[in-house]
Amino acid sequence: EETKKDIVLQLVSDGLFFVDFKSRRERRLQKAVNEYKAAQDSAKKKRLNIWQYGDITEDDAKEFGYSKA
Fold it and tell me: What is residue 59's predicted lDDT score, i.e. its pLDDT?
């Protein structure tokens, strides 16, 4: 049986993947973006996996945290 489960949404919910919301937004993807943002916020709040030490996307020192290479 084939499922239509959103694998990316599950990874974000589990704190194993994060979404960069700073990129351009397309109106047709707004529903998915909102779902991913809610899932990511929930994972951050629960400190799951990549969020266990806090927000990896923001840091005062450039050598720490996430940066676009």
Answer: 61
